[in-house]
Amino acid sequence: MIRKKERWLDKKNNIDKLIFGVFVCCVLLLITDFFYEKHSQVFVESWFGFYCFYGFIICCVVVFGCKLMRKLLMRREDFYDN
Amino acid sequence: MIIDYMTNPGLIFLFSAVVICWMPLNWRRCFTLLIPIITFFYIISLNPGDTQTINYMGYEFVLLRVDKLSLVWGYIFCIAAALGIIYSFHQNDRIQDVAAIIYSGSAVGAVFAGDLISLFIFWEFTAISSVFLIWASRSESSYYAGLRYLVIQLSSGLILLAGVILWAHSNGQIAFNLIGIDSLAGKLIFLAFGIKCAFPLLHNWLQDSYPQSTESGTVILSAFTTKLAVYALARGFSGTEELIFIGATMTAFPIFFAVIENDLRKVLAYSLNNQLGFMVVGVGIGTELSLNGTACHAFVHILYKALLFMSMGAVLHRLGTTKATELGGLYKSMPLTTVFCIVGAMSISAFPLFSGFVAKSMILTAAAGEGYWGIWLVLVMGSAGVMHHSGIKIPYFAFFSHDSGKRPKEAPTNMLIAMGITAILCIYFGVYPYTLYSILPYPVDFSPYTFAHVITQLQLLMFSILAFIFLMKVGTYPPEVASTNLDTDILYRKFIPKILNWFSKSIYTIISKNQILSDRWLEGFVGLVKKYHGLDGVLAKTHPAGFMVSCVVGLLCIYLLLYLFG
Question: Does the distance separating the beta carbons of B377 and A51 come in below 8 Å?
């Protein structure tokens, strides 16, 4: 019988810690934007936290786009089989 | 030792393939690994400017042309072949071993070919040999996918041949240098390269066929065909502005397909498409920085993409599937494979200190520097997207996510060694990119590790991760569903067969409905033929030789009379 060993990631508590860690990193990275001189090649780069917001928004847009695509393009798994 | 007779390094592979196909397993294993290693050292011994030419039928065939562009691809193709061979050590499949050697050898050969006809020959060799890697799965679906793949690859070859013939006819020479898309020949060659490079709408052969191959077959396949096409584009079409827009499209649209796809190897095939987009943009911009970026990106991309395919191959090897719906929680029993997969994921996402970062930032800087800020925005979107579908999705759904309860054994040792070496290379080139920069086609005046570069990239990636977590928490992230997603392959897998079917059925119906009429036509036609060619027909009669001679004499007399009095 397979011995079931409790892993660190099995505890929901630890996953919450990880997520909190990611959140803290994001906040710190956003704050860093105040502390360095920007040499922007593209005008939008000079906006405060451009990369943060663009990254976040793009991912959300992609996922919403995907939900729409699924409605249009998703077929059953054996679609090409017969 | 001074090598005084140089030839194309690809030929070492091709001639060795003839030998290894007769060898017993253990000999074959050692020898197949030796081939790329020997070729690698041979390529190192070559110097830019080395050539080997043969004059034949009024054309100059350049079997070997060494310059800094071909050397980059030569090195990485040998490294990829060696890693792929180590990865496939656990299996005993003669056809696959030989096909892999011929395939990688012809790709190396094509890179060092200096004329279009030699390129075409190696090009076709890659197409024909690679299909055996797809068929190596020996399943019905891989058989049909292989056939579709072969038709598309050979079509690319035929279009290339047509282009080359036109080019040779109009220019009187066949040297493979800058071609451009102004002439019809140029357009045809461009299209041929575009098919192999998986341009938008011509891309689906890649997602259709690569996931059908065996675990090691896909690793080998992922390295060569498409990167050879990128090389060919960089050689023949650098600075072609259309490529910038084509490349940008390639970085954007596969993201959507990759996010909704259930088969993780197919997700990687879409992500391969997305990565090619960056390289194509680099070729299109055509500056020294962007071409360096393309070469650098092709180099590191081959490594991290192989690593990702290797980790998924290990899962396939142990569980027989890479469908996200059937995986999850595998990190518990495959910890090393998980670590290697994460290294590949971080490299493809271009995390600082990983190889993707030092290459991708070059192309982005080049695009922004040349004023293509719209394209630049799409490329940044592509970078965030790749984080999403390859950086997070692949490791998360395979190794973490919900626990599938499956506890497969860790990958075989040879797979772990191959993955380990690839992972070390991914980190090495990320931490110390200057080795890689020193072999690029143009002098490099670029530093990836500026404070701004590192911070902005981390901002982009960490906020993409945050978005993923947010979407998972609110339940918006599309759940994994066992499904097929329609792509352009529906055209040739459903629509065209349906139209042909309808067409043949309609003809049959028309014929059967007009049976009486057609019978009458047929009878009339047969009667006519019988009348003239039948037993007593005028045209089928035999005549005595004397009669025929008299006729000939008569005709000659008439001709003579006409000649004398006419």
Answer: no
